[in-house]
Amino acid sequence: MKTTKRKFLDSLRGIGAFVAPYKRAFLFAILMIVVSTAAMVIAPSIEGNITSVLYADVKRASDLQHVAISFERILSIMVTLVGVYLVKTIGQALSVIYLTNAIQNAMQDLRDALQNKIRKLPVRYFDSHHYGDILSRITNDVDAISNAFQQSFSQIISGVLTILLALVMMFRLNVVMACTAVLIIPGMLLITITIVRHSQKRFAAQQNALGNLNGAITEMYTGYNEILLYNRQEASIDEFKRLNEELRNNACKAQFVSSAIQPLNSLVTYIVIGVIAIMGTLRSLAGHFDPGELQAFIRYIWQVNDPLSQVSSLSSQLQSAFAAIGRVLDILEEEEEVPEAVVTKDVSTIRGDVCFSHVNFGYHEETLMQDLNIQVKHGQMVAIVGPTGAGKTTLINLLLRFYDVKGGSIQIDGMDIRDMKRGELRSLFGMVLQDTWLFQGSIYDNIRYGRLDARKDEIIDAAKMANVHHFIRTLPDGYHSIINEEANNISQGEKQLLTIARAILKDPKILILDEATSSVDTRLEKMLQDAMRKVMKGRTSFVIAHRLSTIRNADLILVIQHGDIVEQGTHEELMKKQGFYEKLYNAQFAQQE
User: Any idea where the ABC transmembrane type-1 domain is (predicted)?
Assistant: First the structure.
């Protein structure tokens, strides 16, 4: 999955929209940061006053053994110092409380926005993106943003204020020494900017590698049984090791480059402190500089160095967050599904007449269907056959508006499906797919998923019609038996029977079957065929058929090849034509007959 390159300010604006509702809490937190930072900057001057008082007392004394210490003045200074540190502590505590609440609320809104966005994205987005990478963006990337804001925001603001206030205090003490100390800032900024510029692309590569690894892990766990079946354990392990190694390489490069900032900045600081110490000592010996002021001045140098070092040490986290913001904003800026129809249609009276009129469609820039026309009457069973990749599933995807046609129209009872809300349209359909889907919960709830307001007797009747009632009764807890998260505590055939019962319970206007009986044995297949004939009676049905023996009684068979309908008719009519359908049929049954 590609990540859009965006400028830093654009990323901040994008994420700032989620922070804006909590600006009052942010502003109050910033105010508390200002108060605590100001108190912290004042403290060295007050501490220096203690040294100055002691130096003055020693200087006045004629004998070092008879020094008169000004304890009252020192005690007064210490009381003031305690008050200053108390203000600093309270300010820090309040800033943390308000900042935490604001940031976590903003991150909650961000996750909600992502969830809402995911619901509005078209099916093609999920067809073209790895689930693991999408999951990584919603979880890992949001966490990276949250941690960066939580840990870095206050430090950056506090650091900038500390540097500015410390510089003011240094210039008040001595202009020449302050000008020398200021050399720290351009030196450290030059180092930081140079390294960050080289490491940013490495952090973006690190986040992408993490998404690729998560995507591969998701696929491996989803296909765990198939991996064992085909003895692909070694290949899967090798793939994991390759992606893990790619993540390690990108992470090592990013962390190595960014970690060089702090030692280089410390070197600059120590050199400047050494120069300042020499200058201050010489001036103090000459009587032009108070020792307490020298002590405070050196403390201010550290107060300039510490925030610069902290911001430098946070550079890796900030860059990871910057890359994460870009990946998250990519999802939020994705093109959504075509807007819903404004006018609500009454679907309760729909019979189930379906018409494909001059339909054109293709994935991306390729054209798969061109001028496709199909007329299906209410109550007909329509079978769709053709080789793999011919467009059978695409036809159903268009009917359900998982994709929209690029030309022509699809109508149900003369009503264009684009003029219907998607929820109303899809409420007309019941589906039984080859790939079963059951969720963790009771068998009762899994069947009831088809119609949540169904009564217990209706659920049992649906299970009986699907020939799964007897199996359920043999379980210790019956309908209250729990299906686990992987749904592997029942067989594939039993899972298919439950999905058929769910479709029966919904009692849809139009039924879609994707070779629904392919996962059951011969005995159950005959029982299911009888049950499905009862279910399909009186309603329009589309059957995607792989075993052609199941569709001999279809009212209409559509033979699709390369997205076009090359033949259509009943089984007998198509066999008489001796065309493509006849070849498909004989390929399956010639040996048996």
Answer: 27-320
